[in-house]
């Protein structure tokens, strides 16, 4: 479902006239803002299949800090693979990295550990590797990365649209006070139920992620 379609569906629920572009009126523009607010909340609620992707990085000998392009400092790591050496890499703390780099002579070799260390000038996450790469190694960061804010009318929402639509509608009802007798609490309860259903369907694709182990 596109950004414009979501906004128009909400406008219909509010008994407002539909628009040909999201920013056609002040009110449709407000609904667009609420849609993006709802989108972010729904994205944060679960590691959606539609948002899972792989970021690639190829190391250079002697360089230990790399930029994960496109992350914009908002993502979740599922796992990290050293594809050249065929093993999963392990997260280590900033304190561990400070110890390796400052209190001893850093080792060189195939990267086995990673730690995030700041952001680039354009807002992407930076990652440190250890040992310091001694050659070209292909690394795969399997992550959940939210979709950029919706701005163009024809942009298709990646995650399930219904939870976003219902949560944005609840926010709109709250903003105007009520909607034909429907209270904001009722609308939020409906949005929560729809979100739970959507998570249940999507989590069935990854049952191992909802099993607690001790």
Question: If you had to describe this structure to a student in words, what would you say it looks like?
Answer:
The chain is of the alpha+beta class and 214 residues long. It has two domains: 3-48 and 159-207; 51-144, no CATH class. 36% of the residues lie in helices and 21% in strands. The chain has helices spanning 3-13, 26-45, 94-102, 161-176, 184-203; strands spanning 52-58, 65-68, 76-82, 87-88, 90-91, 108-109, 113-119, 125-130, 132-133, 138-144. The strands form three sheets. A four-stranded antiparallel β-sheet has the order 1-10-3-4, with no helix packed on it. The chain has a four-stranded mixed β-sheet with strand order 2-8-7-5, with helices on one face. Helix 1 (3-13) crosses helix 2. The longest helix has 20 residues, at 26-45. It is elongated, with a radius of gyration of 22 Å. The two termini are 40 Å apart. The mean pLDDT is 95.
